[in-house]
Amino acid sequence: MTDPSTREAVPRQRHGLAESVEAASLAIPFRLKVAVVWAVIFGLLAFAFFRSGFDVAWMVDKAPAILKGVWVTILFSVIAITAATILAMLGALGRISKNPIAYGVSGFYTSFFRGTPLIVQLFLWYLALPQLAIGLLPEPYASWFIWPAQVAGVVGIAFNYGAYMTEIFRSGIEAVPHGQTEAADALGMSSGQRMRRIILPQAIRIVIPPTGNEFIAMIKDTALIGLLGTTILWADPFRMAQLTGKADFRNLEALIVAALVYWGLTGIFSFFQRKLEQRMSKGYVRTAVKAG
Amino acid sequence: MTPPVVSVSGLHKRFGDLEVLKGIDMDIDAGEVVVVFGRSGSGKSTFLRCINFLEDPDQGTVEVAGISVSAGLPTRRRRREIRKLRTHCGMVFQQFNLFPQMTVLDNVMEAPLRVKGENASEVRERAIQLLDDVGLADKADQHPIRLSGGQQQRVAIARALAMRPEVMLFDEPTSALDPELIHEVLAVMKRLADAHSTTMIVVTHEMGFAREVANRMCFFHDGVILEQGTPDQMFNSPEQPETRRFLEAVI
Lengths: 292, 251
Description:
The complex is a heterodimer. Chain A has helices at 4-13, 17-27, 30-51, 56-68, 70-95, 100-115, 118-136, 149-175, 178-186, 191-221, 237-248, 251-280. Chain A has a domain at 72-231: MetI-like fold (Orthogonal Bundle), CATH 1.10.3720.10. Chain A starts with a helix and ends in a 12-residue tail after the last helix. By secondary structure, chain A is mostly helical. Chain B is of the alpha/beta class. Chain B has helices spanning 44-51, 76-86, 104-114, 120-133, 149-161, 179-196, 207-213, 231-236, 241-250; strands spanning 6-15, 18-28, 33-38, 59-64, 67-70, 89-92, 167-171, 200-203, 216-221, 224-229. Chain B has a six-stranded mixed sheet, sandwiched between helices. A four-stranded antiparallel sheet of chain B has the order 2-1-4-5. In chain B, helix 4 packs across helix 5. The longest helix of chain B is centred in the last third of the chain and has 18 residues, at 179-196.
């Protein structure tokens, strides 16, 4: 029944139009077809925009001002990502700790910051913390906790994402096979050496993909800081687009530019993340992956 | 009389309601090769893992190379003593447990460098020598994933030996290996016993190895050492019916 000559003979006999179309279609590479789909989507969008009176000249004119906000996004993102990573490392060590204080504090941290909306947390840092500080502390200490929108925003994003990343790091540490712990113990390593030399290097490989996703989400969520009402000096692309677009009623043009800025940023980030993942797979795949 | 290298007394261990070890006593002299055998669930692996406190016993004392640790709470002081004891025990696992992020050479060098703080160039020299001894000098710069199971286990043996332990503990070292790879690991172990007179405690089902290499065989049954003796005694005239039944079943 599985004689290849008989199987091949069947389609050759019936030579209808449908078959030739299918054969021609199969000859086109999948990626090329996907590229065509993307082109069609862009074409349709462009058509819709221009029919609605999309003002390219205005966009070209204002784009540089909006684009300048990308430095604010990058600055906010770098600080928030760094702070969140530190918080998450501390949090993860707390979650796996046998110390009841460390375990309890980190448990409260992840529960609260993962269990409440980010936007609420941002306003808590921005508006509620000053009230608490003023109610509790004498001057000048109280005013230490009255922060500008960009500080409250970055702190808020760092604490929120740090909580999610705590759980990612914890699960990454716990995903390292128990045999590795036993091997390190049997060699006489201290628990600190075991963590630094054996467990963490392996856990990092496990957590890079989900952590990269968190970083991308953070880059995008820095746009929320604008909602706290940052000054024009500290305006990210979204805030800048709001300010410029609203003035001329060119919201579509302005917001599209802002969206493209974030899209570009996250695209660049994803590219480097993929490269890093390939490098880190060394020692885990039999066939060496050559980067590039 | 030199004191024994390993001295175990009154060892008890329970997992929940199940008492796995019901009072084990054993002295092992320098250069002795002890094969521990018995059914699965007899407590033989738990016994081995209690010697370097990978399992914490509920009662009893273990002494290795003059360092004595008794059952007790994991206080800071006791944990430090356990770590010290462990540096005198080389352990080889069923699943090899090499560190995948390190090269073969780094696996072997890790503990002497980090735990003992030895001189790097001396450690490197010794590590290369050990890899040569187990026939894997040419794999030094590879990552473990590139090696066969038998090769990985030989690296694991070299890694354990790099600490210059007083005793080597083997926990079913060939049970995870494909049949054709078993003998290369056993050959390395045999050479350790013969050429280097390494003190060894081996939990294994390889009765051929036991007959050839062991000085003493201990039959574990229901958490006690039911019977022990030379391979000749055990294979030819076991006293306990349980021992006879087990040996008949596995040979």
